[in-house]
Amino acid sequence: MNRRGIIVAISLMILLVGWWGFQRWQMYSATVWKLLPENAFLVLQSQRLQDTTFKVQKGGIEMREVPLLNLAARQIDNFRLLSDDVTQAEKLLKGRRITYVLQKTSSDRFVYLVFLPLDVFQVYSWLEGPASSKVRVTSHKHNGYKIYDVSTPTSEPLFAYTIFNNFIVSCISGDVLEDWIRYASNPLRTTRPSRFESIRDDNSELSIFLNNDLLSEVLRKEAFTKSDAGLLYFFSFLPSTESLHLDLEFSSKNTTLTSKGKKIKAGGYVYALNNQRATPFKNTFFIPNNTAILYRLGFDDSPLFTRQLRSQLSSISSDSINLSRSNLQSSIGSNRIDSFYRFTNKELILCQLEPNNSLTKGQVLLQKVEPGVNFDAFFRRLAILFNKNKGLPIEPFQGGKVYCIDWYELPAVLFGGLFKGFPKCYVAFHKNFIVYANDSQVLKDYLIDLEYQRTWANSAVYNAFFDKTLKASNFTFVIHPRKSKEYMGSGFMNYLFKTLNYDITEKLPFDRLVFQSAYKEEKAYTSLTFGRLSKASSAKILNKVFLQQEFETPEAPSGGVFTVRNYPNGMEKVIIATASNELLNPFAEKKKRKITKLDAPIVSDIYSVDFLSIGRLQYIFATEKSLNVVDEDDQQRYMTIPPIRLPQGRKIRSLQQLESGIEGSFRFLVIDTNGFLYLWNSPTQALVLLNASRPFTDLLLPIHEVEYQGKRHFLFTQSPGQIGLINEAGVIPEPYKVDLKTNFSGPFFGVFSPGSNLTQLIGVSKYGEFIKASLGGKVFDRRQLFRSDPTSFFRAKAAPNNRDWLLFRESKTQFAVLDKEGHELFSAKGLVESRNQVQYYYLSSEVKFLSVKSGNYTTLYDLKGYQIGDKPFPSEFPVRINLIEGYNKLLIYGYANKKIQIWSLKLR
């Protein structure tokens, strides 16, 4: 070889060795950002999460209990098992900025890959041979690296770790760790840029990094076909990669993480909101307390927003919705569509409501419009043009009208796929808002909530929290985790948390999760707030029963203790009826104690509603002989309206409140002892007899309301085996009544699913035959449930407020609670024979439980069979229970030892 060739060869060798050495040096000196795997979609970084009590402020949220953070905290806690010397393990963890990367295992589990930085040139020989009485440590080689496998003394695997350059890398899955070592050992890996490094904040005590492209792609595959698309579209409001950092200034009020502004693709909703002046969310008066999830779009230049939104509608909607939009425009003309959009003003708000017994997923969309603009003609035209039912699709309610528009996904057609979930639409107007709902009863209930101020702005607890938390934004997302279970029931979020093996909605250290974002010059400025509406309960009061108040009354109240609600502060008041038929307020001054004289014992409950429409609540109740209205003014003066009586010879069996009035908010259904039904629409109107031709004998109560053929119907059940529908005009539609030829102990109920736009009738026969029927009268599910013994019987039982129901299997000394599909939740035995009573309470989707009265004591249980409260409540009558909303406190009213007693119980 000539001299030139030798020089070239030597030069090439030097270059190769230099390149190899540079790569090795780069690998050793690489920051954690160069070590992150390519499929990292969630990264946590914190120098505080390893602290066993990580709170942002005094009395604040335990950050280690936040979902996903708690999983990371549990994994880093494993290092404390490696040494019996506590100080040695703490020295390893204290003050280090640890990085956690969420990974998916081959068995579809999600685990964290943990990167614990080490001091350079420091010796950690104890990690290569840890001595601990708590664990066993073995090792094996993989790809040139030594992996330490940690297991319990009984050889159950805990986690594995390796020392890679200046990091300890660990994972509870050895397979994930080995996969990462193969990836990290590739020298070419260090040339790839990090996605998250440019948006890091090394001064933050906690940072969360998201790869939203990966997250949304998984969610799209899992949930695109579902009716509620909110969680799918949520990621479109985020940049492709996002970082949120603990903001100590904002966190002085509620724990808040903020971003510093990240470039975002200006498409879809973001395109319409970009450079719109962020506006404060001031309309919490219109948000009902039963909202589980809220989406709000806020904008300042309404014409520009609607123009830009309309240009993006096809890209943010499915093919079926785009087709529906095209057909709508063809049907009513583009000029009417243009005119409709012209008056949109400042806000679009979607409220997804907590489920109840008759509806799985209720939704309300609020479209703010210019003051004084009348849309009656527009929606009247839509209602009549697209009417597919018999009769006029316009119903009077509260002095206004409810329009039924039978057009597929009308809100999504008008405003894009975020507002999906309205197979049929019901529309009304309230002040400067057009109100859309996916069920007529949802719409009516919403309007009633506004009338009676059951909204965020009128709740002291809600209002204080949102006043501190809500700021000027273009997009607001608020979620109440416990009320939103139905919306987490499908798609990626459900898949993720089921795989993590814990329930996202249980034992959370926060009540609300609030995401807010503003968009300026194609940058997103976001914040995430973990909020708790009330202070965390101390161990001294949590789940403890306390006696709050008692009043001695030697004469036992007739029918037990009643509670009525004051207006508008929402507090409860005790009322009793004496054996001498006097209605009393026992806690009032003696001269103000007597309310009225009764003509007979009270049947059913006492209801508090503004039946007179005068701005305060009256007490509505029935005795065996009459229907009564008592009005109480601010000075505790009582006025009794002349009672209404049934036809001669008939006695009242039950009075049932209906929230579906025509002109006013409330009306009542009266059932007499012969089986006749009456509508009581107003205290100034006579009763309307429904089944005038013949009585419905052996009725099982309560009677449920369902919509059939575009009209409200009453679903009644007769114990010999008949179920039927009757409408407000007294007409029984075909094919009802249906004879199921079996005996019943409890009524049937209807459950409406907006996704399928169908209502199912569900019930169980006395001897355990579970039955599902359609509104067309067709039975499509009929099966036998398990009977524990020959004396047991079954029935469906409603909560006292008739907002939900469950199935029960009962006998003299035991009972079992079943869900709506007939599956057993839990059972109890050993009750006092013939002296027990079980009642189901549904106070909200997150507060539902049973009261079991055995003898003269009542015990509360959750639906898993665990006792609520540290002791039972003494009471000779069934107790009354009320929830103080926002404070998670129950008030229990009973009568024992010749005293009316009020007990309290803090739930969490």
Which descriptors apply to this entry?
single chain, 21-stranded antiparallel beta sheet, 36% strand, 908 residues, globular, alpha+beta, 16 helices
Put the structure in a nutshell.
The protein is of the alpha+beta class and 908 residues long.
Q: What does this protein look like?
A:
The chain is of the alpha+beta class and 908 residues long. 18% of the residues lie in helices and 36% in strands. It is built from 16 helices and 53 strands. The protein has a 21-stranded antiparallel sheet that branches. Strands 22-53-52-51 form a 4-stranded antiparallel sheet, with no helix packed on it. The chain has a 4-stranded antiparallel sheet with strand order 23-24-25-26, with no helix packed on it. A hairpin with a 2-residue loop joins strand 28 and strand 29 (626-632). The longest helix has 27 residues, at 3-29. The radius of gyration is 32 Å and the shape is globular. The relative contact order is 0.07. Mean pLDDT is 85; it is low at 22-29 and 223-228.
- Uncertain regions spanning at least 5 consecutive residues: 22-29, 223-228
Q: How many helical stretches?
A: 16
| Radius of gyration computed on alpha carbons | 32 Å
Estimate the mean pLDDT confidence.
Answer: 85
Helix content: 10-25%
The general outline is globular
Largest sheet, if any? 21 strands, antiparallel
DSSP strand tally:
53
